[in-house]
Design a protein that fits this description.
heterodimer, A: mainly alpha, Sodium/glucose cotransporter, 2 domains, disordered N terminus, B: mainly alpha, 1 helix
Chain lengths: 530, 40
Amino acid sequence: MTIAEMGTEGISTVLIYSESVDAGRILSQEAGYGMLLLFGLAWIGLGIWWGRRATSYDGFAVAGRNVGLALGTATAVATWVTSNTTMLAPQFALQLGIWGALAYSTASFGLFAFAPLSGRIRRLMPHGYTAVEFVRRRYGRLGSVPFLIISLFYAMTWLISMAMAGGKLLNALSGIPYEVGMTVVLAVCVLYTLFGGMYAVIGTDFVQSIIILIGLVVVAIAVLLHVDIADVHHQLQDDRPMLLSVLFPAALMALFNNMLFGFGEIFHSNVWWSRAFAMREGVGPKAYLLGGLLWLPVPIVAGFLGLAAPALGIGVSQPDTVGPLVAATLLGTGGALLVFVVVFCSLASSIDSLLAATSDLVVNDIAEPLAKRITGSRASDAIKRRWSLFAIIGLGVVTWCAAYPNVGTLATVLFFAGPMVGSCIWPIIGGLYFRRSSPIAACASMVVGTSLGLVAYFAIGWFVASLIGAATSGVVFLIGMYLYPDDFDFRLLSDSPGTPQAGRGDDGGPIDPNGRGVMVGDIPKGGETR
Amino acid sequence: MMFPLWFLELIVVGGLTLCGVGAAALIVFWILDFKEKRIW
């Protein structure tokens, strides 16, 4: 008998079954494999279709730098709707109540805040590829080394958590073994990113964002047809009043922590910088603003599924699958299929973005500088394109190896990077807007912020780690700027890395002992671009 | 002090509405971009 046939009165029975026998299996393995095959082939096909445009490295890495408002907005939404949004937001709500859902939605503030930054990034670096490239040219090696380490750690953490989420989701919904599900989801994303680069990533993001938003609306409305909001409120008031408390200390800390985590993630990550480079001049600010507005309600709607769980008497053995469990339990096979599709889209839209953006880091910020040091010449576009393919495959293999053992919960894996990215907020803002921001200030703020944030993570908890990392790095950055001020010329960011320039080596490489681009005073000064 | 029922209703119904409007807006943007050949 299926859950749909049982109806809502059968929920308790289903849960007893699902908890004691087979934690939450809703779909048959055959249905799960069928959906995987269907959507896997669809994404790969679309990747090949859009990938035909990627004839140059600029096309492959930044989609020709001409992405319009529709695709720009959609890619911001889809990339930021990770499987953590659809799986962790209900967990947040289940454990931290209304504040938990609201706390997760504050991650959209990062998109709002990045909107003006994206316009400035595009203007300052019309030929740029990565965030690390900006930091290297702005702060030199002193800033770029810690920033590159943080960027790679964060990207890999996010990638691994997404791959793990894929395996867990398929296992929770259909009983497909974790290892198989994780492998297939990762392989599909690697394949279509490999074929189409940023064109495929942004193109599929558009389709995926529409599916996610519509799927979420359909699931939430269907849940509301089964349970009244007033009943949810009443049940929570009686049984779990803390979830409704306005003054829930851990939840309040989570709110600020999550907001700063979101700021740090978006400000530093090349996933967002590569999109800023990819969008047409003037599109970025609008796209990120609209993307934030469209993303804002997603964790709230998903979180409601978690809040509804106690009212429905649903016992949850694995908190990070409460959302899919509630929807699938109430809606039966149809709901399970819909949830499956929504979460698969959430996974794919983030994994592909991470593969593309991180491969850009590997190619532009590791391989190319190393090759230039060894051979003395810059890599051609064709070579960089080939390196990108190796990088994407390599990232997929490393992610697979790390995700295979299935160690740690999603939250633990995700929030470990929180203090690190939180400590990048001020060096990025300062580097983009203030001439006085200096390499020493940037380096010290990242190192101190990360260190103290990690101490807080282990000594207090994940819910304060980003907060402490961002706060301490901000103080250190200000002190560093005051004690060791710089006088940077922003025009130095606007030239192509390969363009020879007065005061530079003929390969356009750095001449400063710290590895930075030309210092002010090395070339005639004519004001800065602000 | 607890969140009142109206607040929970506001964020859930408001969130649902925004999600629906958002999906429609993306399709409208795409049509506009397509007409002006400004998708890519």
